[in-house]
Amino acid sequence: MLLLMMIFFIFPTNFAVVATRQLGLRTELVTLIMVGLDVVAFFVGMVFGGVVNRFRQSVKYFAPMFFLLGYAAYLVPDVLMVVLGSTCIGVANGVGVPYLNTIASIKGGKNSATTVMPLLSAALYLGQFVSPIIVTPASHILFGNADLTGPYKVGIGLCLLFMVQVYLTRHFQSLPPK
Q1: Nearest one of 11, 4, 52 to 162, comparing CA atoms
Q2: Opening angle at CA 11, ends 120 and 158, nearest 5
Q3: What is the per-residue burial (b if ≥16 Cβ within 10 Å, else e) of 33-56?
Q4: What is the 3-state secondary structure (H, E, C) of 59-127?
Q5: What is the pTM of this model?
Q6: How far is CA 152 from CA 15, 52, 99, 174, in A?
Q7: CB 97 within 8 A of CB 45
Q8: How would you class 60 by CB atoms within 10 Å of its CB: exposed for 0-12, middle for 13-18, buried for 19 or more?
Q9: Are 60 and 171 in contact (CB under 8 A)?
Q10: 146: part of which helix (H) or strand (E)?
Q11: Which residues are CB-neighbours of 132 under 8 A, at least 6 positions away?
């Protein structure tokens, strides 16, 4: 959850500045795109049960993959790509948060409401607040202060790390004990 929220909060921290400076979008359109992302996340969350049933084995990779596609789309200075990227970020968040909550509650069992879920909430909020503290300096170090898309590039790197983490976590959990 920490990594998912770090990746997600690259969007609200940087989107308005990048969209207005790089594409010259008016603040009203930036607002609509940002709200649209949340609407997409809401609807994806509403159909999450069906998504899990249909893509049972691969759904764990949806969040990192859609975040990756979203931030990669932001590297192309085009309004359509920004809208598609925002849609992908919305899908990633709409799948990622319910997936982690579901897995945590299943793994935590009947006591998860008092044990696992508060830890998941703490990781969510920690990810929200450490995202700009980690991503912005990393972007400046790696890509310089002038690269407006630097945070998205760092996000792509975090998405790759997230994908590896998902694979390793799920892979080693399914191995039989020695």
Answers
A1: 4
A2: 65
A3: bbeebeebbeebbeebeebbeeee
A4: HHHHHHHHHHHHHHHHCCCCHHHHHHHHHHHHHHHHHHHHHHHHHHHHHHHHHCCCCHHHHHHHHHHHH
A5: 0.91
A6: 9, 28, 23, 33
A7: yes
A8: buried
A9: no
A10: none
A11: 9, 13
- Quick: pLDDT tens for 30-52: 999 999 999 999 999 999 999 99
Query: 135: part of which helix (H) or strand (E)?
Result: helix 116-143
Burial class (CB in 10 A: 0-12, 13-18, 19+), 154: buried
Tell the residue number behind the tokens 């509403």, with chain if given: 46
177: three-class secondary structure by DSSP: coil
User: d(Cα 114, Cα 13) in Å, to the nearest integer?
Assistant: 31
At a CB cut-off of 8 Å and minimum separation 6, what does 130 contact? Answer: 2, 6
Amino acid at 43: F
26 neighbors 48 (Cβ within 8 angstroms): no
On the question of pLDDT at 145 being above 80, the answer is: yes
Average pLDDT estimate for 8-13: 95
User: Tokens representing 64?
Assistant: 């990192």
